[in-house]
Amino acid sequence: MKQLLAGFMLLSFTACYQGNTKSEDGYKTALSFAPGEESKIEAALLSLTDSTRITLKEGTYKFDNLSIAQLKHILIEGAGAGKTVLDFSSQSQGGEGIRVTDVKGFTINGMTLKDSKGDLIKINKSEQVVIADLHAIWSVADSTSGGYAIYPVMCKNVLIENCYAEGASDAGIYVGQTDSAIVRKCKAYKNVAGCEIENTSHAEVYDNEFYGNTAGFLVFDLPDLSKKGGYVKAYNNYLHDNNERNFAKSGSFGSTWGVGNAAPGSGIVILAASNIELYNNRIINNNSNAISVVSGFFIDENAAAKMNDNYFPIPRNIHIHDNVMQMDTAFPAAVYEHHTGKVLVGIEQQLNAMDPSRKNARIPFIAYDGITTNVLTKGTAVNPDSLCIQQSGPNLFVNINAMQMKDKGWKPSTDITPYVCK
């Protein structure tokens, strides 16, 4: 734990240094451009040298795509989100709006990116990355939108701060296969997932607002990737009204592990991720489920065959405490057309059929698939994977007993006793 805290202190210091460098003497080269000089900007990026500050003045710039690679100490700054706008709507080639690869010390802040065909900004294999005061938006939120609005992947030491993402057909703010990341004071609206932490270790997500998405916040570990995630904390977030239709691209549905599996009305979903702590969050009016904790087996019966050093399908060491959770009186309409959504509806119906005293109560706030390491070890231990819940109130928890869902005698259980923190 001391090493973890020290790492985050170092990240915070590094991030503040990179993001707050304002004087030109912090960079060997300072370049400044205005709208209408797009060709000069593209040429400058092709010949960019280490330690360069690029200032984009207020106005709208139209680009096909921009690329930066194999550099150190680079700053791209605008006049502010909504003031400096990079418009990729006429893009004729390239997937991303901005692609950054192998840059050590990269900061981008103070601008809006909009309407690329693929991801709006993808930062790959880079270190000491700061994305601040950035809006990343698609004008139309549907399956034609790019997958990720803000997308650092395979990076180290990432700070995403005071950003806004809208319209992504996968995740508005996504951090993938990264070591050490902070997402704070951001907003995500009208995406499939507001924010996703995937196969990422040592991440903190706090003081954010994720609302009006299909699902508010996802913590996923997926197979066949180069890095194992874990040690993720999410706290002081406001996740509300995430009830919208899942408009992920078709290849993201079913057993292909994509975000298409996220049911409309999901607040937080933990999938096959371990060492996770959720606390002091307000999880309000996500009307299918506040928190779901599920294994890889929940969406792929062959998950065991995918196990290796970077992937273990059972979530372990999950600590849920001191969250405020509320749901409305009914599922969102979109849930009835979604494959995972139909499962959640079935759980609620089965609980109420089993126990008329529930008087048609809603599905409990926390849903656990109940698939444990016992399926791998043939053991019989109760709560062998340390799901630890410290929450109070009625209708709090359901163990879905997902392995028996297809059986006639299937009985989900609302007994939280084995999972109350000792």
Automatic annotation (TrEMBL):
Protein name: Right handed beta helix domain-containing protein
InterPro entries: Beta_helix, PbH1, Pectin_lyas_fold, Pectin_lyase_fold/virulence, SO_2930-like_dom
SMART domains tied to this protein: PbH1 (SM00710)
Organism: Chitinophaga silvatica
Superkingdom assignment: Bacteria
Limits of the Right handed beta helix domain: 97-219
NCBIfam families (alphabetical): beta_helix_1 (TIGR03805)
Organism taxonomic ancestry: Bacteria, Pseudomonadati, Bacteroidota, Chitinophagia, Chitinophagales
Pfam families, sorted: Beta_helix
